[in-house]
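Write out the 3D structure for:
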Amino acid sequence: FGKQGLVTMLVGEQLFEIYGYTGLLIGYVIYTLPIAFMLIHNTIGYIDKKFMIVSRAMGDSRLRCFFTTVIIPLLGTFAASFIQSFTLSFTDYGIPTSVGGNTDLIANMLYNEMLGSLPNFHTGSAVAIIMLMPSIISIGLLTYLERYNIRYNKISTIELPKNKVRDGLFGLF
């Protein structure tokens, strides 16, 4: 996407400015999306599908069935994936260095204070402690959220009906 990148060379011009906020956003999405996806994907494998059948048999609408049998059991995982993504983004140094442009982030500040032309270890140690606090807070939050995870004693092997259009649209999404 950069000035000499593959997409720019194929299209013939730079589609958008990659350096700055846009580059940070794209970089962090590419960096944290696989971790969040794996957490959510693994948890979805443990949702008991019998509850969906029972919910539909009791007359719940499709939206209510989806909300009560899929979204509610995933709330703890959604929170955990958000915390993990935030911590990864907060402490990352590579993305702000490569595509951050003139945007100052805390990881760059730590590097400049500790290893810059004039090292300032007092300020650098304060910045390092500030960077350590989200990790400590996230461990506490993840421990607290662990009690809200729904555990099933036995998971059924019932397969839900296939719908190629629905599955294709959600797969594309």
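The helical segments are 6-11, 21-44, 50-57, 62-91, 94-99, 106-115, 121-145, 164-172.
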